[in-house]
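Predict fold of Efflux RND transporter periplasmic adaptor subunit; 392 aa.
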Amino acid sequence: MRWTIGRTLAASMLPFVAAACSQQPQAPAPATPEVGVVTLQEQDAGIETLLPGRVVALETSEVRPQVNGIIRRRLFEEGALVSAGQVLYEIEDAPYRAALASAQGNLAMASASIRSTRLQADRYGRLLAVKGVSQQDYDNADAAARQAAATVQARRADVMSANVSLGFTRIRAPISGRIGRSLLTVGALAQTGQADPLATISKISEVYVDVTESADKLLNLKDAIRAGGVSRDGASTVAVQLVLPNGKTYPLQGKLAFTDTTVDPSSGSVTIRARFPNPDGTLLPGMYVSAKIVQGVRHNAILVPQQGVSHDAHGDAVALVLGSDGKVAERKLVLGTALGDKWIVNSGLKAGDRVIVEGLQQVKPGDAAKAAAPQQSMAAPGQGARPELGKE
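Predicted 3D structure, encoded as tokens:
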């Protein structure tokens, strides 16, 4: 009896249980994710290359003795600015003054004898006309007069040479610039042809910066210029900026002076020389720096923010693009030079493409997404160049 009643109650409850189950809420469909996109546009972009370089003085001269002698005085402060022609050292000049006096005495004696020999040659010439002397006597007198004149010229040259040697006892600055340390002190023996100079002068009010670039990149740039995709007004207008060893940017801008006409066979690179003003002496010869060279302007370039570029398993650069149908697609890219926080795109993207730069982790190719403005501001190109990836 109890079993029959329980079975009847259970059967009567089934419709209510089924109705309750059918009224439970279903899980909502996932919302379409929002992603930050940037619409690409064509624009002109400067092609910048960051290359290692070394500072070279505009002019460098070694101060060397032209005569032998003991250094008597040093007339400059080490590290000071000196002018061309300024006396730097004095060498003991007593031997050279004595040599000059001796040369002057010899010249005086030669000059005294020339008058008598000339007068005798003239008298013999008149006597020869009346057969008063033989031809041989006249020839000997004329030869003696000519020899006396030649001797005077030789003694005059000796005086000039002695004067030059005496002048070399005052060692002068050959160029204007900043002089370094003195390698010899007062009392030391200075000799012509010695291995070390007395000091070195460097003109650093302006300096050169020599950088090297691979020959293939220069060829690619020239090809782009010939094709019309890159323009350059001329070598004299190419701007160069320096990054100092402490990471700071040198405040004064330089200009490209010239590109070497030969390729280094050991490295396959070409030397590029730029010229910089250096009024405060910040740039010192031998200093290693980085030079940012604006080699040209690429017209109608496509620039993509670097945060929108990633790499696949093969190492290829890729970007996610939101199509007009709201679907995400992947594009493979060939990248050129980095300009600030953007890459120049050689192929893979075009003007009007909407590149996803935020929310990349929320979507994958084929997913639907909604476009939104990026929350982070996009920096302007040309700020903080990075190493190149790929080729132009």
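Confidence is low (pLDDT under 50) at residues 1-5, 16-21, 377-392.
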